[in-house]
Amino acid sequence: MPKLKTHKGASDRFHVTGTGKILRMKGHRSHLRRKKPSRVLQLYHQKLEVNPSDLRRIRRVLPYL
After folding, report:
1. Which sign, positive or negative, has the C-alpha torsion 52, 54, 60, 61?
2. What single DSSP character describes residue 13?
3. pTM metric for this prediction
4. Is 14 exposed, middle or buried (0-12, 13-18, 19+ CB in 10 A)?
5. DSSP-assigned beta bridge partners for residue 24
6. pLDDT in tens, 9-38
């Protein structure tokens, strides 16, 4: 069976932990930041776990992670 290619955009956006969880960053971080409250900006620094409904699709584009 041939090797599978990793989707490079997905490999930049998702991080796999040692236990196998897939983490993501929040979107809308860079646009119109001045008018957002500071507590909202602090939430953008956290990594979130990916929704279970999206896991199958993400694992398909990241075959070796």
Report:
1. negative
2. H
3. 0.79
4. buried
5. 14, 48
6. 999 999 999 999 999 999 888 888 889 999
